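Blinded run. Sample ID left blank on purpose so nobody reads anything into the name before looking at the predicted structure. Input follows.
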Amino acid sequence: MSKKEAVFKSCLQPASKVLVSCRGLDGENNALAVGYCCNCSYDPPMVMVGIVPSRHSYKMIKESGCFVVNLVDEAYKENFDYLGSVSKRDEDKLLKKSIKLSEGIKVNAPILADCPVNIECTIVDSIVTGSHEMFVGKVEHVHADSNLVDGEGKIDFGQIKFL
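Blinded prediction complete.
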């Protein structure tokens, strides 16, 4: 098979779609679609999310020191598309779409209750990589729909119909 040079931007695909939820120091909640998200350590468990500094949520995450990664399935596609295309600077998008929130257990940030998996994280480091600041978050608590979790607490990701 022959090879052809491809575009560099976001060349490591596919990756599951995620929404990152956060809370500002003033109590304001928000959620945004994040294109850069990955595991970066299993001991201790850590994930990394990339946020563009011009995004409304950037300051909230930077100041609060925490965030929640919400894995998105097909049933949440309309909300994902909306939350990823509208800024909270322009309207209260969580209220407008009646996004169901629950409180984090370990971090002061909301979880998106209708997403199948929610990963609460505390920021332990960050690095500016050009267009994004990559926040490294230590996993503090993982919520998963009960039908996805086996007797040992492992998530059966094969049951989730990711976007």
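Unblinding after everyone has recorded impressions. Helices lie at 56-64, 77-83, 93-96.
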